[in-house]
Amino acid sequence: MAQRTVLVVLFDDVQSLDVTGPMEVFAGAEKHTPGAYRVRTASLTGRPLRTSSGLTVVPDGTLADAPAPHTLLVPGGQGTRRPAPHLVDWVRAHGPGAERLVSVCTGAILLAEAGLLDGRRATTHWAYCESFARDHPAVRVEADPIYVRDGHVATSAGVTCGIDLALALVEDDLGRDAALAVARHLVVFLRRPGNQAQFSAQLAAQTARREPLRDVQQWITEHPGADLSVDALAARARLSPRHFARAFRAETGATPGRYVDRVRLEHARRLLEDTPDGVEEISRASGYGTPEAMRRAFVKALGTSPAEYRRRFRTAPAR
């Protein structure tokens, strides 16, 4: 088995977890399968640098002297918003030579600045997706997934998503058992699929300030198949339907109906991903009532049917 060199690019104001998260995954895989990976870090100068959290990191050496990588990994952080021109030049010159090009969080911005994402699908931290798409119109930015793979190029969303992507790469390289062993050691999920949303429905909305409304949010999450009409939810909050709808939107940023739609869609996606249950059973459990109602919701939100969604998920290489 050929050893894969993973080269992590470092720069001032890099996000430390973008660096250490994937490095821990690859280092753990090396312990599980000796000879699988050689992980190295490098910067323009090779001198110690400070991460965005204030942690000082000492690179293994300079980018000029770095070994030709199998996997070139570019982390994110504040430093990607004002990258040194020489760093962009180095990535532009050496990125195409890597067998696998990977970014974590806003590291995708650096890849885009180097022209390596033109015409490709990519993602980054949710907070920067809009500006990323505006500044780099040649990149097809996908704001929802936690990571996106387009050929030999893989980009991940914010911070901890780099761990998910690294585990997916280890699973590709060494198999599920190796990735599972690393995930267990790090006490993380083996596989959050790349098409999983960056935000759950609860995180996508604000948390209500008032306790009755927070309780209703929790009830919706725990009972997606229940009667979640405005009247029923208002009664649970002990408010009039009109008052409830107005207060819920003011405190969460979403109408009750929109919030319920998000929760039900997320619940149905998880059941399609993680269970063998049939579409009819899942449609009832998720509150859609009929397979046709769930199909319409999936087509509207995701552009695909539940059956096709499950097929794509279970055949995707990102597993």
UniProtKB/TrEMBL annotation:
InterPro entries in alphabetical order: Class_I_gatase-like, DJ-1/PfpI, Homeodomain-like_sf, HTH_AraC, INH-QAR
PROSITE patterns, per database record: HTH_ARAC_FAMILY_2
Domain of life the protein comes from: Bacteria
UniProt keywords, alphabetically: Transcription, Transcription regulation
Listed transmembrane segments: none
Domain HTH araC/xylS-type, chain residue ranges per copy: 214-312
Pfam families from the UniProt entry: DJ-1_PfpI (PF01965), HTH_18 (PF12833)
Protein's name according to its UniProt entry: GlxA family transcriptional regulator
Organism of origin: Streptomyces similanensis
